[in-house]
Amino acid sequence: MKPARPSRTKRLPLTLRRGPVAWERQRPTWREARPALIADALRRAQARPTGNWYVVGASRELRPDRPLARTVAGHEAVLWRDTEGRLVAGPGSCPHLGAPLRDSAVRCGTLVCHWHGLALNGTPFAGWEPWPAHDDGVLVWVRLDQVGAEEPTARPAVPGRPAAAGALTAVYTAVGVCEPDDIVANRLDPWHGAWFHPYSFVDLTVARTPGRADESDSFTVDVSFKAAGRLVAPVRAVFTAPGPRTVVMRIIEGEGRGSVVETHATPLGPDALGRPRTAVVEAVVATSERPGFAVARRAAPLLRPLIRAAAGRLWRDDLAYAERRWALRSSGDFPG
């Protein structure tokens, strides 16, 4: 059943779902979710340049006393802020004797190695060379030209999103045994939503799919988010793939119009068994025209854990999807 078109002037954000259909009786979507359509959208996303930029985590994860440490495509990286508050990034191995800088301390904007005290202020020193880094206010990025092998850009192509100052933001991170393509393919399959995530989504209809000449590879989806019982929030959302490791969902009609969910897939490197590992870094940037949203923003410290918990529930399923896809691809058994 297609949800009623949401109204911007409606006083309450929720609608009473009429004539709900049991999970097993909803309309099958497997014929619409054509493997070739998803694969074509994925191939076009893979061809889009990134400038060699990789998302490594949330801006809020940067602390004044220790670095933020990540592994990107097998390369250890550390990030911290210097005395001017600027983001600094570079190799995570001390150039002296290879100490793990992830375990070192930041003092007055300087990263001090805990093995022998070699101090790094973010400029080249003793064989340590910084890497380009960027903080967009929600996420932090690092540029690895030795990995991307593309034409580098001065800054990453950050998707358009509501201003962080007027939005409620939360970032969720998880790791799966798969490749970034498997994460992106999951997001370019909106048809699985009401079947695979019935606790969150109902009445899902894909209203528009991309054609071969569609530069943004946009999928338009009408769906209702479950609140409690038969209470739902119907919205229209658009999914786009601006790059090979990013999918953006933007609400264009209904409650939270203008809100964005950015899903970034960052390759980490192989695990002990040689299998690829990928981090999902998902940023929720929520906004609303309702007067009460200002109260929600003030309660952000309480709401962020709830948003991350909701994202975590979805990603427990979606990582299983992505990991299964990789396992079938690696064995040559993937039917798509």
UniProtKB/TrEMBL annotation:
Matching PROSITE patterns: RIESKE (PS51296)
Sequence ranges assigned to domain Rieske in this UniProt record: 53-142
Superkingdom, taxonomy of origin: Bacteria
Keyword Iron annotated: yes
Signal sequence coordinates: none
Keywords: 2Fe-2S, Iron, Iron-sulfur, Metal-binding, Oxidoreductase
A Pfam family it matches: DUF5914
InterPro entries xrefs: Cholesterol_7-desaturase (IPR050584), DUF5914 (IPR045612), Rieske_2Fe-2S (IPR017941), Rieske_2Fe-2S_sf (IPR036922)
The protein's name: DUF5914 domain-containing protein
Organism: Streptomyces javensis
Upper taxonomic lineage: Bacteria, Bacillati, Actinomycetota, Actinomycetes, Kitasatosporales
